[in-house]
Amino acid sequence: MTPRAALAQYVRDRFGAEIESVEPIGGDAGPKEFGYGDVVRVTLRGRAHPSVHELVVHTARRGGFGHDTLADRAAEVILAWETFNELPAHVHALDLGAIDVDGRMRSVGDVRDFFLVTSYGQGEPYYEDLARIAETGVATGEDLARVERLATHLSRIHRDKRDAPELWVRRVRDLVGGHECIAGLLDSYDDHYEAGVPSREIRRLIEHWAVDWRHRLKPMTSRLCRVHGDFHPWNVLFDGAGFARRLTLLDRSRGEWGEAADDLAAMSINYVFFSLRAHHAADGPFAEMFRRFFDTWLTEMGDDDALRVIAPFFVWRALVVGSPVWYPKLGGDVRARLFEIVAHVMQRDRLDLDDLDSLFAPPLAPLEDMIAHP
What we know:
Layout: H1 3-15, E1 18-25, E2 37-45, E3 54-60, H2 70-83, E4 97-99, E5 105-107, E6 124-125, H3 126-136, H4 141-158, H5 165-177, H6 182-188, H7 200-217, E7 225-226, E8 236-239, E9 246-249, E10 257-258, H8 260-278, H9 285-301, H10 306-309, H11 311-321, H12 332-346, H13 357-360, H14 367-370
Helix pairs in contact: 3-8, 4-9, 5-7, 8-9, 8-11, 11-12
């Protein structure tokens, strides 16, 4: 269906009217030479609603400034629908609509929430494997095979690259300032005084480090690749036995494209987390799994630079598992140790797989002694 035909059908269905004329808006915008959307003025005739004589139809423009994905553009029009009519003297929002795969315009103005329907994933969540290993102190040959399976699967995802510099910069910006990322997680620690929660000053310094990392990462646009985005043990199911057991992933988050090290950090921080909670030493099973996970992925990808950019992603995931909101019953010694690891990782240029004592061994040093004030 052509855009004009789709618009005419929509106007008939929604407003009981025919189109008299369609005129683009925005051709004469003065000194402003950039806008976010395509806008047309539609004059009606034979209208069923006497008060509606003219419409303005806004279609969100793609690309850049947070309008890259369908979800972005949906959020833009939904925000307008929620807020335009709440501000005195503002033009009124008359309807909220969507364009389907055939180009038809459909009203969703009476929608009050959204839902998603998926298939059911068969299998057991991977975190149950980690809980068993923490309890027994033993990782079997099959456990190590599963680690290799996870890393191999990730390598197949990460091989798909994309040339989209603006999207890369956005993902790096989201990492630092996003609601669910470093700044948002640090904010969630406010007004929490549980054992192991670091001071506001230390949290401020972590945020400064993150901003420094953002500027280091911004030029590395060629690293943009396909990602899962939330690759942790609660989002992985295994069904069956051995390396060939079926792997199912759940709840992909925060977009299709990003940095491979994000997925690596999301999984590997849990080997550290479960190890700390079980009080295993550096030569325990989780350190071996951590090393096997990275070695397998690096062999498949040949991308040693991932170890040079992983620090802020690793820190973000440490902030998640150390959060008093997400893990309110976490022991203060474990939470304190996580922040020692945060300080250690962020001040190094590379994650050193030959120095796993720094992640799995007893505390490095008092956190205050590790902080390099900017």
